[in-house]
Amino acid sequence: MGCDRNCGLIAGAVIGAVLAVFGGILMPVGDMLIEKTIKKEVVLEEGTIAYQNWVKTGTEVYRQFWIYDVQNPQEVVTNSSKIKVKQRGPYTYRVRYLAKDNITHDTEHHTVSFVQPNGAIFEPSLSAGTENDTWTVLNLAVAAAPHLYPNSFVQVLLNSLIKKSKSSMFQRRTVKELLWGYQDPFLSLVPYPISTAVGVFVPYNNTADGVYTVFSGKDNISQVAIIDTYKGKKNLSYWPSYCDMINGTDAASFPPFVEKTRVLRFFSSDICRKTCVHFTSSFSTCKS
């Protein structure tokens, strides 16, 4: 019995030592295999997991808006008083739900080009009101006209059309009109062939953003989804120096193996510039 017990202990110790050795050998091998698989599957080419999610994101993307409701429009117009506003919102829309279109692959330069169809669906459950909420806001057409046409004679003509259309510096508009467009009564009277549609995002629905050209990551995995050019350009010609550069991704995806110390850069065509995010803290969305 004693021999059997000692033999069992020795055998157990030997097996444990052997497993420990194999574990020490296989762990790095396993890490290498996992890293190799990730590098293969994140490349933006047909057949990879990343490509499927990149073409049409599986995560819901939302855009929120807040409207500044002017409280004293008459005082501002009459007495040049300091404007008073109240923040209204948020008004939430689901975006980026349409698949990328006109996708072309350049295997020589390891890039992918595409356009991103635009669309916005109102999300009542994530909003403070409805699209029909009406607020007092700046009259975009009236405010912009003097800056677009500084000629004194033209301004006299425009002022007469503004009065004739009963327009003023401020107007009452619904959230939907302000964001996605309305037919402006002042512009409708202008005797020139111009667009009479006014809105912060006119036009948006049924349009497309791009062309974007991004790196596929085939030759350099750290470059995957990084924008090479936007509408054929590497710069915007809007901002001075570094701010004018187009770099980062379109925020739909980022290269793998991202460290917490790394700054994630992405380009937003809506604000015509790049921006970035920094890691601040970790949190869990799981409920115990």
Instruction: Please report which band the strand proportion falls in: under 5%, 5-15%, 15-25%, 25-35%, 35-45% or over 45%.
Output: 25-35%
Distance between the termini: 50 Å
Taking pLDDT < 50 over at least 5 consecutive residues as the criterion, the unreliable ranges are none
Shape: elongated
Order of helices and strands: HHEHEEEEEHHEHEEEEEE
What does this structure look like?
This protein has 288 residues and is an alpha+beta fold. It contains six helices and 13 strands. The strands form five sheets. The protein has a four-stranded antiparallel sheet, with no helix packed on it. A three-stranded antiparallel sheet has the order 1-2-5, with no helix packed on it. Strands 6-7 form a two-stranded antiparallel ribbon. It is elongated. The mean pLDDT is 84.
In brief, what are we looking at here?
With 288 residues, this protein is of the alpha+beta class. Helices cover 28% and strands 25% of the residues.
